[in-house]
Design a protein that fits this description.
Layout lengths: L6 E4 L4 E4 L5 H9 L1 H11 L2 H12 L7 H8 L16 H5 L16 E3 L4 E6 L17 H5 L2 H6 L4 E7 L6 E3 L4 E9 L8 H4 L5 H4 L2 E8 L3 E8 L7 E3 L6 E2 L4 E5 L4 E7 L4 E3 L1 H8 L3 E4 L4 E5 L1
Parallel strand pairs: 1-15
Antiparallel strand pairs: 1-2, 3-16, 4-5, 4-15, 5-13, 6-12, 7-8, 7-11, 8-9, 9-13, 10-12, 14-16
Helix pairs in contact: 1-2
Length: about 300
């Protein structure tokens, strides 16, 4: 990937595509220009900025942005569960629900599915990685999880990083069946999770505000999911509950306005990722795929 373009593999079209980045000019300015870096530290990383922008997206006047946004990014309104004119704000549109037919869930009992629409990278073994967005940066699992004992259990586990853009469907789902043992907040900043930012500093993943969910699966044990907050994403909303059992593909919750990220961790030797995402990830290329599609199978 060059600094000027974000290229990913689209599983549906079977081709490389260049991402149309929401707010691309400002992101490039902030992360590639010395003056922009001043603004990053003074304003953009501050929680108040994200809360302020979130309020703007909740205001009734923000609904005027919906139709231009749909047209600019070519969203399929036939997939929406509710009509476009039913949204009272841009945020309501942003975390819209989709028809179940728009995101069918792979029904194979051995298959694990993507938890969110987005651009995905996998790390088959967390103890053997030198890639992702910035070469030479080490992934700090202790800091990410905020739990040394949990980090030891997953130090040779597998990881899926699912990066959501503002143009994506912003509800996240369970990748497998399981019992929700716990969910808790690990507080932090609200930096951008765009590749422009991650190339500069991979530690954004463990410095940002994030929610950790522990899911117990009957086949392979514990699965962890982290919902990573980002610039203009002040909150995560839960539609699932701790102490309940859910099926693969059931909705877990949704993000408010902004790009964000879902990180999913599996125990060592528990999952075999699909060939396309393995190949692309090895080359440092994200794979675009949707909720419910296979990401791999239980080993």
């Amino acid at each position: 990937m060059s600094d000027s373009d974000i290229v990913y593999w689209n599983r549906e079209s079977g081709s490389l595509e260049t991402e149309r980045v929401y707010g691309e000019f400002w992101l490039k300015f902030i992360y590639n220009n010395p003056l922009g870096k001043v603004g990053l530290w003074a304003i953009v990383k501050r929680a108040w900025f994200s809360h302020w922008y979130g309020k703007k997206m909740n205001a009734s006047q923000s609904a005027d942005k919906i139709i231009p946004f749909i047209k600019k990014y070519g969203l399929k309104t036939d997939d929406f569960l509710d009509s476009v004119d039913s949204f009272d704000s841009f945020n309501e549109f942003f975390y819209r629900k989709l028809k179940s037919s728009a995101r069918p869930i792979n029904s194979s009992v051995k298959r694990i599915v993507f938890p969110a629409d987005g651009r995905h990278l996998v790390i088959p073994n967390l103890n053997k990685t030198d890639l992702i967005y910035a070469k030479g940066q080490q992934f700090q699992l202790n800091e990410l999880l905020g739990d040394t004992n949990l980090a030891k259990r997953f130090k040779e586990g597998s990881m899926l990083i699912s990066r959501l853009c503002p143009v994506d469907y912003h509800r996240f789902h369970f990748p497998c069946e399981g019992y929700v043992k716990s969910t808790h907040l690990i507080d932090g900043a609200l930096s951008s999770v765009s590749p422009f930012a991650l190339r500069k500093n991979l530690s954004i993943f463990w410095e940002n505000k994030r929610y950790l969910t522990v899911l117990e699966n009957r086949k392979f044990g514990t699965c962890l999911q982290l919902m990573i907050g980002a610039t203009c994403v002040g909150s995560v909303h839960w539609t699932s509950k701790v102490g309940q059992h859910y099926q693969k593909g059931d909705e877990q919750g949704y993000f408010s306005f902004g790009g964000s990220c879902v990180i999913t961790l599996f125990p060592p030797n528990s999952i075999n990722f699909d060939d396309d995402i393995l190949k692309n990830s090895h080359e440092g290329i994200e794979t675009y795929a949707k909720v419910g599609e296979s990401m791999g199978q239980i080993a």
